[in-house]
């Protein structure tokens, strides 16, 4: 058995935001540049068309329509390279490694150009503090391949549990994927009732927060919350939800974040992480649905009778 194969035996690897933070900056901006290619796709309600999808080696845009054909960009997080393939047979790739954001994005568009894909994106990052346009972010940044692979494996494990959770819901959901703006994997449940983010909401929120929802997810941490964690929130936030019972026992309401939190390290200590994570998702949904007055018949067993 290879070293890489052995590593895959742990679906919930050790993971530290402080160790990952510098690499995360480069990875996040690269994912944003790739994700922005999907803005050419027809708009779907609540940005359902925009996530990057997980696959068996990393992340992919899925097919993006171009000149009556299609191209796809994949980020392989085992061989650590970005690849482009097209329906007309062109393909290519470049290696990921320590570099600047400007260099990564430049190589991405050179790759697309060689495949005869002539596109452009807004070079300003979205949903991050102090955004630096990609082409101006020339600071050399590290790329710790082992940490990136761990990050992706946690995404895979999270999606595995999310699919069980999602399958029990009878109402409207979206495909599970990585939201490249905020770099989190999420699953969203809607009850079909309209909601408004308010007159001061930005363009992204105006088109995302249009229905009442319960969202669960995982992100790798930030300067504001420097730990990887699972989260859950109800929108609009119903009164009294912060006092709701939540599982497992280490999960809690975080006042500063305004949502339920289960730290990743606490889940890793569990004897059954999958079961505890599913309990977190389900109890957070129950708390939100009950406090917001959702219909009780929206959840089933997930399997046909």
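^ structure tokens above, recovered residues below v
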């Amino acid at each position: 058995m290879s070293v890489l194969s052995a590593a895959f035996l742990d679906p919930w690897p050790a993971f530290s935001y402080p160790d990952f933070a510098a690499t995360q900056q480069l990875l996040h901006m690269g994912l944003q540049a790739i994700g922005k290619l999907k803005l050419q796709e027809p708009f779907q309600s609540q940005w359902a068309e925009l996530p990057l999808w997980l696959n068996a080696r990393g992340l992919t845009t899925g097919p993006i329509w171009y000149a009556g054909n299609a191209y796809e960009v994949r980020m392989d997080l085992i061989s650590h390279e970005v690849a482009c393939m097209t329906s007309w047979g062109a393909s290519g790739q470049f290696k990921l490694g320590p570099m600047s954001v400007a260099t990564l994005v430049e190589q991405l568009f050179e790759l697309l150009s060689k495949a005869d894909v002539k596109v452009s994106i807004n070079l300003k990052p979205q949903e991050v503090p102090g955004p630096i346009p990609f082409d101006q972010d020339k600071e050399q940044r590290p790329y710790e391949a082992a940490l990136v692979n761990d990050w992706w494996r946690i995404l895979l494990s999270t999606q595995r549990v999310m699919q069980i959770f999602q399958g029990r819901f009878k109402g409207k959901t979206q495909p599970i994927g990585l939201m490249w703006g905020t770099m989190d994997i999420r699953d969203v449940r809607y009850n079909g009732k309209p909601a408004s983010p308010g007159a001061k909401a930005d363009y992204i929120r105006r088109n995302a927060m249009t229905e009442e929802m319960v969202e669960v997810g995982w992100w790798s941490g930030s300067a504001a919350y420097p730990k990887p964690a699972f989260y859950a929130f109800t929108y609009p936030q119903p009164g009294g939800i912060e006092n709701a019972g939540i599982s497992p026992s280490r999960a809690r309401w975080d006042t500063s974040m305004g949502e339920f939190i289960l730290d990743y390290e606490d889940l890793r200590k569990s004897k059954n992480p999958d079961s505890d994570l599913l309990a977190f998702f389900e109890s957070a949904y129950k708390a939100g649905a009950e406090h917001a007055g959702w219909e009780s018949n929206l959840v089933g067993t997930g399997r046909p009778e």
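Residues 16-136 form one domain.
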